[in-house]
Structure formats: C-alpha cells, structure tokens
C-alpha cells in the first residue's frame, strides 16, 4: 500500500470515528439505583436527576441517598462506556496496521 492510500484510509477512519463520537454524545443514558434515576448524555453531561423513592426522606436517609446517587451515576457511566466500546471498538486496533 502506498503512502497516499494509507493517508486516505486514515482520514476516512478519522471521519467515521468523529461521526460515531458525535452520535454517542447526542444519545441519553439513564443510570438507576433504588432511589434515584439520572440521565446523562454520551458526553457525560448530566441532564436530569429524579428521586424515585416514595415517602419522606429523613435525615437518617441522607447518607443512603448519597450512595444511591453514586450508584446511579456509575450505572450510567458503565452504559456510556459499553456504548462507546460497541460503536468505536472496531477502530481500537485499526491504526496498528497503518503505523
């Protein structure tokens, strides 16, 4: 393969990767725990927080609520990472052949 073909292939891959990243950033991912639902974009921007626990939240529940927010955030980020791996994983080793 000549250098011109390699450069064209690398540029095409870069455009595809950029398009897939932009697509991911527009997607929404919901992280859930027993008390909380949080919605993030694929770019990890927080869009909303919803407390789904019914009844009153007491002062004693405060620490549990904090833990539930952490769990919901981690859940959303796991989903984002899985979507990234799904959409961009095909490119992970592709540049090795070009170098």
Rg from Cα? 20 Å
Judging from the principal axes of the Cα atoms, what is the shape? rod-shaped
* Superfamily (CATH H level) name: Nucleoid-associated protein YbaB-like domain
Distance between the termini: 12 Å
Which CATH architecture? 2-Layer Sandwich
- pLDDT < 50 stretches: none
CATH topology: Ybab, Chain: A
Order of helices and strands: HEEEH
| Strand line-up across the major sheet | 1-2-3
Number of helices: 2
Helical residue percent? 40-55%
Instruction: Give the CATH level 1 class.
Output: Alpha Beta
Quote the beta fraction: 15-25%
Mean pLDDT, to the nearest integer, reads 88
Largest sheet report:
3 strands, antiparallel
Number of domains: 1
- Secondary structure: number of strands: 3
Helix- and strand-based class? alpha+beta
List keywords for this structure.
single chain, 99 residues, alpha+beta, Ybab, Chain: A, 3-stranded antiparallel β-sheet, 2 helices, 52% helix, 17% strand, rod-shaped
Protein model, in words:
By secondary structure, the chain is of the alpha+beta class. It has two helices and three strands. A three-stranded antiparallel beta sheet has the order 1-2-3. α1 (3-26) runs antiparallel to α2 (62-88). The protein is rod-shaped.
């Amino acid at each position: 393969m000549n250098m011109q073909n390699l450069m064209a292939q690398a540029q095409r891959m870069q455009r595809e990767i950029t398009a897939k990243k932009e697509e991911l950033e527009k997607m929404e991912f919901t992280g859930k725990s027993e008390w909380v639902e949080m919605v993030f974009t694929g770019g990890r921007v927080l869009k909303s927080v919803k407390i789904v626990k019914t009844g009153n939240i007491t002062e004693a529940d405060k620490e549990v609520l904090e833990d539930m927010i952490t769990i919901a955030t981690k859940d959303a980020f796991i989903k984002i990472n899985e979507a990234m791996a799904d959409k961009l994983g095909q490119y992970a080793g592709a540049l090795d052949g070009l170098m």
